[in-house]
Design goal:
single chain; mainly alpha; 21 helices; 67% helix; globular
């Protein structure tokens, strides 16, 4: 009589295979995406089939008009890409606000894949996984992912642009620079203030990348050309509609201080900024710094819908907007302050480590959120606008969390520390761009210019004995 395996023994190989697959990159990405999608779907169901903010009704109405063949209309003054995206989703669920909200939530969850890919390229798998977890569960990203806001799509597109740019200059491939320029053009047509970001990419390509000077200039030129091509169609449409050059939208004039609004309408935003800075430099600097603080505040303080009078005024303009508050403000504020405070602390820890590495990629990662925040600070800043650049901050948060994780594992009985564990055997894969090169072994990878910029040498240093 043969011994039959017990049910537990029969299931063991299947469980082991499932766990092994979850530990693989496809399994990990699917798990992270599922976390993000579930969180945003729960938020979408809580928000329901109604509208909560003016932006939602404007985007929804424009998307329906586009889907019906009426185009944007001559009165539309916002950025163009998000209504197009929303109209594509509306084709799947026409007229059903809740279904459209849920589709938007699932689409926003795809950012976990992008942030993981970029984080792995910069800092390694552990930091990338933590960054994707923060992206999946950050309260502000979860809620905005369920609202009809352009920020979630803009955040994902910016991540894709960063990934394309770093791939371009790491592999010296002009095609990736062209793609980065096109994606930055899309980002700017989701949020017009994002026009401050392409100059940062171009300056970084010319001044900080480890390629020969001619190749740097070629990459920067390719990015700029693709950006201009992406902006050209909507700029031409605006010229035909408004009879003057309007690059993306006229929202910048609307967000100009009231005393200067008419001047901005007549003379342009750039001229208005220069005139304000010239006439009152100290007042201009003081206002810009205060707006910069509003951009990074721990809890929202500038929501018109937080007051009954504000909600009544919005309801009078559009009956679809509620007069009752959409959120419990006390709970919202506490969750916001605690979560973002913790994310900032970990991000500063990650930045301290990444900065020591002196990686050119870290310069771009830091410059993009700061530059974007300063762009909004010239006009009118509030907490929601930072959603687009939060993933860049979360990459540093993920690195800080990975450091804490490694330290905690080293403190456990039988644990290990990254400082005392012998480095792995060399392979033909390049190290993460921003990773700290292991002190006991450095191996040649890839092109010489890239190696020199990231501290990688031709020598292999003898491994020390860690068995003592």
């Amino acid at each position: 009589m043969t011994n039959q395996p017990l049910p537990e023994q029969a299931c063991a190989p299947a469980r082991s295979a499932a766990l092994a697959w979850l530990r693989s990159e496809p399994g990990l990405l699917l798990l992270l995406f599922t976390f993000a999608a579930v969180a945003r779907l729960v938020a979408a169901m809580q928000l329901g089939g109604g509208f909560h903010f003016v932006d939602e009704t404007d985007y929804f109405d424009t998307a329906r008009r586009i889907l019906a063949g009426g185009g944007f209309g001559a009165t539309y003054s916002r950025e163009p890409v998000f209504p197009l995206f929303l109209s594509a989703l509306s084709a799947i669920a026409p007229g059903n606000v809740l279904a459209l909200r849920m589709l938007h939530a699932v689409a926003a969850a795809l950012g976990t894949v992008l942030i993981f890919r970029l984080g792995r390229l910069l800092f390694g798998t552990t930091a990338a996984a933590f960054a994707a977890l923060v992206y999946a569960f950050d309260p502000l990203l979860v809620v905005t992912g369920a609202l009809f806001y352009a920020e979630s799509l803009a955040a994902m597109t910016l991540l894709a642009a960063l990934l394309a740019a770093l791939t371009a200059w790491r592999n010296d491939r002009i095609g990736w620079s062209l793609l980065a320029g096109l994606l930055l053009g899309v980002v700017a047509q989701l949020r017009a203030v994002a026009l401050v970001i392409p100059p940062l990419f171009i300056a970084w390509a010319v001044l900080a990348t480890p390629l020969p000077v001619r190749r740097r200039l070629l990459h920067a030129s390719a990015l700029a050309l693709a950006l201009l091509l992406a902006l050209l169609p909507w700029t031409y449409r605006n010229y035909r509609v408004h009879g003057r050059l309007v690059t993306i939208s006229r929202s910048a004039q609307q967000n100009t201080p009231k005393a200067w609004r008419s001047y901005a309408w007549n003379n342009g935003v750039g001229s208005s900024l220069l005139r304000r800075a010239y006439d009152d430099p100290s007042g201009f600097a003081d206002r810009t710094l205060r707006q910069f603080g509003y951009f990074w505040e721990l809890r929202p303080t500038r929501l018109e819908t937080d007051t009954q009078s504000g909600r009544d005024a919005l309801h009078a303009k559009d009956r679809r907007l509620p007069r009752a508050p959409s959120f419990n403000t006390a709970v919202r504020d506490n969750i916001s302050a605690i979560s973002f405070g913790a994310e900032l602390l970990l991000a500063f820890a990650g930045l301290a480590v990444a900065w020591r590495r002196r990686s050119p990629a870290v310069l771009l990662l830091v410059a993009v959120p700061i530059g974007y925040a300063l762009g909004y600070s010239l006009f009118f800043a509030k907490m929601r606008y930072r959603v687009m650049v939060l993933p860049e901050l979360f990459l540093l948060t993920g690195l800080g969390a990975a450091l804490v994780w490694e330290f905690w594992r080293g403190m456990l009985p039988g644990g290990y520390s990254a400082r005392t564990t012998p480095p792995p055997a060399p392979s033909d894969r390049r190290p993460p761009i921003g990773a700290v090169t292991p002190p006991l072994e450095r191996v040649e990878y890839g092109h010489g210019a890239w190696n020199r910029a990231h501290g990688v040498t031709h020598e292999v240093v003898r491994k020390e004995d860690h068995t003592q």
